[in-house]
Amino acid sequence: MMKFYEKLQSFLNQFIGPFAEKLSESDLLTGLSSGMMMTLPVTLGVSLFAILVNLPIEGWQSFLQATNLSTVIQEVLSATMSMLAIYIVVAVGYCYTKEKGGNGLTGAILSMGAFLALMPQTVEGAEGPVSALLSNYLGSNGIFVALVVALAISSLYIWLSKKNITIKLPDSVPEMVSRSLAPTFVAILLFVIVLIVKYAFTLTAYGNIFDFVSAVISGPVMGFGSSPWALIGLYTFTNILWFFGIHPSPIVNIYTPVLIAAITADVEAYLAGENLPYLVFQVLFICMNLGGNGNTLGLAIDMLFAKSERFKTMAKLALAPSIFNINEPMVFGVPLMLNPIFFIPMALTTPITGGIGYLLCQLGFAANFNPTISVPWIMPGPITGFLEGGILTALILIVCVLANMALYFPFFKMADRQALLEETNARENEA
Questions:
Q1: DSSP character at residue 16
Q2: Least trusted range by pLDDT, from 44-53, 226-235, 247-256, 382-391
Q3: Residue 223 — very low, low, confident or very high, per pLDDT cuts 50/70/90?
Q4: Is 65 a member of any domain?
Q5: What is the rounded distance in angstroms from the CA atom of residue 13 to the CA atom of residue 417?
Q6: 39-97: per-residue pLDDT in tens?
Q7: Residue 154 CB: number of other CB atoms within 10 A?
Q8: How much is the average pLDDT of 150-162?
Q9: Distance CA 1, CA 159 (A)
Q10: Domain check: are 266 and 203 in the same one?
Q11: Same domain, residue pair 363 and 350
């Protein structure tokens, strides 16, 4: 096994390593990864609340409801993780503008203004249209748009600024005022472009850029059925999207009716004493998100063997949320998003765990599966397997976690070695 890893490591260092190093020099990827890492305090800061509010303990849930803590926690989560797009557009706009040599704060403000301007400003209420911003567009449905807007607006701001389209003020004007007013003409041009884009989308069947992105990406998913292979294909697709910064939630939400139909059919069959028609489908569904999309729990465990300070620290921060299937801290903190080192394992974990789950189901490891037991999404996979199907079903999930660890390990070692080298060089430069 060690010889296999050594050969794979040599292949990665020879072919993927140079490519990854070249991409790491890109201002675009540097701005993106830096911006994503800036959102880490938000995602990590509230991940504990997401775990606590979903714990399936009757006494605890009664306490939360009686004290109104449940509502308060949900509001905190709604203002943070459920509105992550607005944090991303500001952070990426700031970092990419700075990376290109511009005023980061101006880039961040212009990016946020453009992002909000592109959003629909009215919703249908009981008594007619109401002026409001939909939180749906500030969350998972808006992350990809936030990335595009931040990069586009920042790039245009830098390009136009280099054309000297600025207000020239006398030296007597305070520097703070002069710096604030200098990009006024640039801002006017940018918001004219935003206005044109927003109006153009109102002429389409989608109505706005957010629904356009959601429909174009989500549309193909409607062709999937309820077979295990469709489920594996869906989650492989969403993992790849997650790698490129497109949150999987909109895709999975579209697929939810299929999931509900399969679960309902299994419950009816179980109560009637018949074989479950979608047994494998349901078991594979548990196998697909061990640590979140991309099955990143295996990577979080691998980080316990890190040699670099960067990944040692990340292991301490990200392992607990990953156990409870919250992996935004890892996706934006490692980062996994747009990190070529981790593309292959993110794409392959689902087919591999799906294959393992399918094989073990055929061997009878899920024979005692009970579809009437409902477990929240934050429950660790092996515990979910135990509660819904007993020890053998839990064993399926444990084997899948071990497989994910093995798949991620050589790629993690390459990233860890690269981080260790950077830390060593930084210490030598300081000395």
A1: I
A2: 247-256
A3: very low
A4: no
A5: 11
A6: 878 777 777 777 777 776 788 889 989 999 988 988 888 888 778 889 889 999 999 99
A7: 30
A8: 91
A9: 52
A10: no
A11: yes
Scanning the structure block, which residue is given the tokens 């557009």?
89
Short-list 76, 326, 337, CA closest to 317 = 326
Which one-letter DSSP state was computed for residue 364? Answer: T
- 258 and 383 fall within a common domain: yes
Q: In degrees, to the nearest 5, what angle opens at C-alpha 204 toward C-alphas 198 and 208?
A: 40
Distance CA 325, CA 292 (A): 5
Q: Is the pLDDT of residue 139 over 70?
A: yes
CA distance 297 to 326: 9
CA angle 191, 196, 200 (to 5 degrees): 145
CA 254 to CA 218: how far, in whole Å? 7
Cross-strand partners of 336: none
Gap between the Cα atoms of 292 and 290, Å rounded: 6
Q: Which of 179, 199, 219 is the last residue of a domain?
A: 219
CA distances from 86 to 39, 133, 134, 135 (A): 10, 12, 12, 10
Bigger pLDDT: 228 vs 181 = 228
Query: 430 Cβ partners below 8 Å, 6+ apart?
Result: none
CA distances from 359 to 280, 399, 413, 415, 426 (A): 9, 12, 29, 32, 48
Q: Is residue 60 in some structural domain?
A: no
Q: Which of 166, 188, 219 is the last residue of a domain?
A: 219
Is position 42 within any domain? no
Task: Give the pLDDT of residue 138.
Answer: 83
Beta-strand ranges (E) seen in 252-339 are none
Tally of CB atoms within 10 A around 355: 16
Arithmetic mean of pLDDT over the chain? 82
Q: pLDDT value at position 174?
A: 66
Task: Write out the two tokens for 256.
Answer: 């939810």
Q: How many CA atoms lie within 13 A of 295 on its CB side?
A: 35
Domain count, the chain: 2
CB atoms closer than 10 angstroms to residue 341: 21
Of 338, 331, 352, 361, the C-alpha closest to 406 is 352
pLDDT tens-digit series, residues 3-47: 655 665 566 566 655 665 665 567 777 777 788 778 878 777 777
The residue written with tokens 């994910």 in the block is 404
Quote the CA–CA distance of 149 and 117 in Å, as a whole number. 11
pTM, entire model: 0.65
Token pair belonging to 253: 């939400």
pLDDT of residue 91: 92
